[in-house]
């Protein structure tokens, strides 16, 4: 799934003030990290991830790993070592951003 135009701009603007919820360090991309990211993105719909300086992981590696783990997770933006991901929540009570996206 690819999000373009107004929807992408909206999600980027919402993520601008967010702090990273997970930092990827020297352990790199593990199964546990992917599970935690999936739980967080299911709860919040929009998350920001930071790559620490001591990691050997490149941003594209994390993007590829997440898309393999769950095809519904969408990469929104990468700036330096910070990345933003979005996934529509399956529970209605967790939907905040997807309601706004549907209005567009």
Automatic annotation (TrEMBL):
<dbReference type="Pfam" id="PF01985">
    <property type="entry name" value="CRS1_YhbY"/>
</dbReference>
<dbReference type="InterPro" id="IPR051925">
    <property type="entry name" value="RNA-binding_domain"/>
</dbReference>
<dbReference type="GO" id="GO:0003723">
    <property type="term" value="F:RNA binding"/>
</dbReference>
<feature type="domain" description="CRM">
    <location>
        <begin position="1"/>
        <end position="98"/>
    </location>
</feature>
<keyword id="KW-0694">RNA-binding</keyword>
<protein>
    <recommendedName>
        <fullName>CRM domain-containing protein</fullName>
    </recommendedName>
</protein>
<dbReference type="InterPro" id="IPR001890">
    <property type="entry name" value="RNA-binding_CRM"/>
</dbReference>
<dbReference type="InterPro" id="IPR035920">
    <property type="entry name" value="YhbY-like_sf"/>
</dbReference>
